[in-house]
């Protein structure tokens, strides 16, 4: 027992009845019925009181000492309630280790809009493994950026959660692929007796975002007396949208001219004149097609007049409308004194409505550049009797996406003891399907037909019938699916006694089937002008993913207490993939206690990430980037041909791609010098090789202009020729076609800090304070030619992080006071500032991603400030059955720091990945809980 003194003291501190949203380093003991994570075993049987053993995430062995060699953060259901958060997404993404590549619900400009994902250590969402009760979960049916697979946190029910364990260390030696940055293990309640119901409502002080939530948890039966326990939970939540116009400057506008940025869209034919303008073919001057309704008339000498238009103010969204709901049920049966079985089933649904700002203009550049579309002389909307150019937005045709994601899960488990072996056999069936409905995006052929036939009224859009609108923008719907079926077998036992205690052995095997079918987002049609294939809908990229595979794996773990003060842990896993072959991942860990109140710990491991189906399946993705041809090219072409345009980037899967590999190293110190203070600090070092990336498009473009052979894996498709007399000169590039390759490597290092103190005062006042934080020392990528790009403290990797960047520091500080029936928790969240540069998009030190119209850095300091958010929650227990709760989120109504370069939202000039609570503003919640 002496060897467990420190860990048990820390566990006892953690189990104190009050903590804030405090993220501790020790795992709490589960309820006795939790056979998924706990068993009562033999070593303590000789003691007067048998100790509970638990299985902590990252290890397959049950243990009394909850401090493992790896750092584990635990968030209990009580802590979640005191945080004021109402979704799994908000809870998990508030962990300080979540960084670059994290996906918020407010993300609406990507292929995986409508979902939320966690990215520990900033290694994007595809390197963090998400489990439920220690078992894998099917991925979101659509890949982030058409490439990265991840688990949607929105489809996991919060009402059934017992606790969440976050392993901040590599764990491929136990769990296999994807556990490079760490593991998020969401542990559901093993059993429940009674009835518990909650109801909550909330609203924003500044308007919009009204939310309502209700949960019901009911169960009965006692395993010891009735030999069964069964329960079910139901949860529903709906959040209204928040419009940009309901917030202040600069969130509510696209016009940043007052602070030195760009103004509203400019001259027609150059992306402006959105309310409708036509060019006089005789004078060359522009004039409105209709009276201005979207803003005042703008007149520019030598150019003409048109109606101003602010798309953000009219249709921009800070928060999309969202609806989540689900049901979870579980029945556990005690078959005999040593054997139990349970069956659980769940269904969860998450819906999100994401309209796009009005701006579905004829003058789009993707996939076809349609600037200066001409109205024929006989078109009823043309008053000039000669062909005339128009600039127009279809304000009468709303556009956007509706996402409806479903996740069904069935789990069967049998566990028990045979011949001194504790075994567990689990079968899991997961199926997810996502219904995506796109509406309001124009088809090029429909647009040309409407113009030539005169069927669409540009002067009076209200006169257009629904059939006319549908002929231009017919809409499109698809259903994407994802499947994961798993059979897990585990067993563990004690072997023989060592100097520090019994040696433990765990063995495991797994068989699973994975599949994804994501149909095309933008079907292919024939360009009526060129006769060549092109994407059907204007303003949309494209992606599709099809793949399936089988995986078999087996692993072993040894826990060796060599001395009372020294513990070693060794584990390793072998996996066979039907598509990428074999992999072996080992791990070694140690924990040394030179003193009862000091523990030193560390790990060394190898990990891997298998390619996603988007990277090696029957898959491809096409996006567009704004591109400007080189100066030397422009000298031989017309002015219109030299304007910035949308360059297509088409990336196809590579069946020969290899898995990414990683090496992880951690080293930490845990101390508890007094009964009221504990602390831990852990250093991490991750090196990743064989990074799966797109081929080098810059090299391909350079070769194209030079007329030399193309770079390996990339080809350049030329555009249609320029107009006379330049028609015989080299065409500009229209599309880059490449495939995924293993090229780069990366390294990231940093440190996690956890401090916890608790005090008991007179009058039965209990106080707990806890500070947690993550500091990143380096985050850099090295290319095959030796070039190194550094991202920490900047807005890079710009493309992979949705413009969110890599903040150097994230932290939270929670303080809780308990006084009789009253509990109050205040939590401060902090994210550090970052430079508005991104080396991965060719922007280095001294150069901002965004610039002002005169070419200066914008903002001038080229930096986005830090984010602060303070939340206050309280509860009052009226009696043993009824309590009321309330919270004020963003108490000080702090606005988000200005960030014009971020693109994960809808151009709202802030970063929703880190500052969404600030953009929402002060928010009030009130609820009631009833339990019998």
TrEMBL record:
Where is each TonB-dependent receptor plug domain found? 67-183
Where found in the cell?
Answer: Cell outer membrane
UniProt feature, compositional bias: Low complexity: 30-45
| Family annotation (InterPro entries) | Beta-barrel_TonB, Beta-barrel_TonB_sf, Plug_dom, Plug_dom_sf, TonB-dep_rcpt-like, TonB_rcpt_CS
Q: This protein's superkingdom?
A: Bacteria
Region of interest (Disordered), residue spans: 30-49, 262-283
Principal subcellular localisation of the protein: membrane
Sequence motif TonB C-terminal box, location on chain: 915-932
- Where is this chain compositionally biased, Gly residues type? 262-275
What name does UniProt use for this protein?
Answer: TonB-dependent receptor
- Topology term for the membrane: Multi-pass membrane protein
Q: Which organism is it from?
A: Dyella lipolytica
Q: Where is the TonB-dependent receptor-like beta-barrel domain?
A: 378-891
Q: Which residues form the signal peptide?
A: 1-24
Q: What keywords tag this UniProt record?
A: Cell outer membrane, Membrane, Receptor, Signal, TonB box, Transmembrane, Transmembrane beta strand, Transport
* Similarity comment: family membership: Belongs to the TonB-dependent receptor family.
């Amino acid at each position: 027992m002496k060897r467990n003194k420190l860990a048990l003291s820390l566990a006892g501190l953690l189990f104190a009845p009050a903590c804030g949203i405090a993220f501790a380093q020790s795992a709490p003991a589960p309820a006795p019925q939790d056979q998924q994570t706990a068993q009562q075993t033999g070593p303590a049987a000789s003691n007067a009181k048998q100790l509970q053993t638990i299985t902590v995430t990252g290890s397959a062995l049950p243990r009394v000492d909850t401090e493992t060699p790896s750092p584990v953060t635990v968030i209990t259901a009580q802590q979640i309630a005191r945080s004021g958060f109402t979704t799994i997404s908000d809870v998990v993404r508030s962990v300080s280790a979540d960084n670059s590549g994290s996906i918020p619900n407010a993300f609406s400009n990507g292929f995986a809009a409508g979902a939320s994902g966690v990215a520990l250590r900033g290694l994007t969402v595809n390197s963090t493994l998400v489990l439920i009760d220690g078992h894998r979960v099917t991925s979101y049916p659509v890949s982030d950026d058409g490439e990265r697979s991840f688990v949607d946190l929105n489809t996991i029910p919060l009402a059934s959660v017992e606790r969440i364990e976050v392993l901040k260390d590599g764990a491929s030696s136990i769990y296999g692929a994807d556990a490079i940055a760490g593991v998020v293990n969401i542990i559901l309640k093993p059993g429940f007796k009674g009835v518990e119901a909650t109801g909550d409502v909330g609203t924003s002080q500044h308007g919009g975002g009204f939310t309502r939530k209700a949960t019901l948890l009911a169960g009965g039966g006692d395993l010891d007396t009735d030999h069964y326990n069964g329960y079910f939970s139901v949860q529903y939540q709906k959040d209204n949208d928040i419009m940009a116009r309901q917030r202040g400057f600069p969130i509510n506008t696209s016009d940043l001219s007052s602070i030195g940025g760009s103004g509203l869209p400019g001259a027609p034919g150059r992306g402006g004149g959105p309310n409708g303008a036509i060019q006089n073919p005789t004078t060359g001057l522009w004039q409105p097609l209709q009276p201005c309704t979207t803003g005042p008339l703008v007149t520019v000498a030598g150019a003409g007049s048109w109606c101003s238009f602010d798309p953000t103010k009219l249709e921009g969204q800070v928060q999309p409308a969202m609806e989540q709901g689900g049901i979870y049920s579980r029945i556990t049966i005690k078959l005999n004194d040593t054997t139990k079985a349970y069956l659980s089933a769940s269904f969860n649904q998450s819906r999100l409505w994401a309209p796009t700002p009005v701006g579905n203009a004829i003058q789009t550049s993707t996939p076809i550049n349609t600037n200066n579309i001409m109205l024929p002389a006989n078109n009823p909307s043309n008053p000039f009797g000669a062909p005339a150019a128009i600039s127009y937005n279809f304000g009468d045709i709303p556009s956007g996406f509706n996402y409806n994601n479903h996740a069904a899960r069935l789990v069967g488990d049998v566990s028990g003891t045979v011949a001194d072996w504790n075994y567990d056999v689990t079968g899991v069936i997961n199926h997810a399907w996502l219904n995506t409905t796109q509406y309001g995006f124009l088809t090029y052929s429909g647009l040309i037909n409407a113009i030539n036939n005169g069927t669409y009224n540009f002067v009076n859009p209200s006169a257009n019938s629904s059939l006319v609108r549908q002929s231009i923008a017919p809409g499109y719907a698809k259903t994407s699916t994802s499947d994961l079926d798993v059979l897990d077998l585990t067993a563990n036992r004690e072997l023989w006694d060592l100097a520090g205690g019994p040696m433990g052995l765990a063995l495991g095997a797994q068989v699973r089937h994975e599949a994804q079918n994501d149909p095309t987002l933008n079907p292919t049609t024939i360009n009526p002008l060129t006769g060549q294939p092109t994407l059907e809908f204007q303003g949309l990229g494209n992606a599709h993913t099809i793949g399936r595979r089988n995986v078999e794996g087996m692993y072993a773990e040894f826990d060796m207490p060599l001395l009372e003060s020294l513990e070693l842990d060794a584990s390793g896993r072998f996996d066979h993939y039907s598509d990428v072959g074999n992999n072996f991942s080992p791990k070694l860990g140690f924990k040394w206690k030179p003193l009862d109140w000091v523990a030193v710990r560390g790990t060394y491991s190898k990990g891997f990430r298998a390619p996603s189906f988007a990277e090696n399946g029957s898959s491809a993705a096409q996006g567009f980037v704004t591109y400007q041809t080189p100066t030397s090219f422009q000298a031989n072409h017309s002015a219109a041909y030299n304007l910035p345009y949308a360059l297509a980037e088409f990336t196809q899967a590579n069946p020969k791609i290899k898995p990414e590999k990683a090496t992880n190293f951690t080293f930490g110190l845990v101390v508890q010098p007094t009964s009221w203070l504990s602390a831990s600090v852990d250093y991490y070092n991750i090196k990743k090789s064989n990074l799966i990336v797109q081929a080098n498009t810059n090299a391909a473009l350079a070769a194209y202009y030079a007329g030399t052979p193309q770079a390996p894996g990339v080809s350049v498709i030329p555009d249609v020729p320029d107009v006379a007399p330049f028609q015989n000169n080299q065409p500009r590039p229209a599309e880059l076609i490449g495939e995924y390759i293993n090229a780069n490597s990366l390294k990231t290092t940093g440190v996690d800090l956890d401090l916890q103190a608790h005090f008991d005062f007179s009058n039965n006042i209990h106080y707990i304070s806890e500070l947690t934080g993550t500091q990143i020392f380096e985050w850099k990528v090295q290319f095959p030619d030796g070039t190194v790009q550094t991202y920490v403290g900047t807005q890079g990797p710009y493309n992979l992080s949705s413009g969110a960047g890599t903040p150097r520091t994230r932290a939270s500080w929670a303080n809780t006071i308990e006084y009789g029936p009253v509990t109050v928790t205040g939590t401060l969240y902090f994210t550090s500032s970052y430079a508005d540069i991104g080396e991965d998009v060719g922007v280095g030190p001294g150069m901002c991603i965004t610039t002002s119209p005169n070419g200066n850095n914008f903002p001038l300091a080229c930096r986005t400030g830090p984010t602060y958010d303070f939340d206050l929650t309280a509860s009052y227990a009226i009696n043993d059955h009824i309590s009321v709760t309330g919270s004020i989120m963003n108490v000080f109504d702090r606005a988000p720091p200005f960030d014009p370069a971020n693109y994960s939202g809808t151009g709202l000039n802030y970063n929703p990945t880190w500052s969404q609570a600030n953009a929402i503003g002060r928010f009030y919640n009130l609820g009631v809980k009833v339990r019998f």
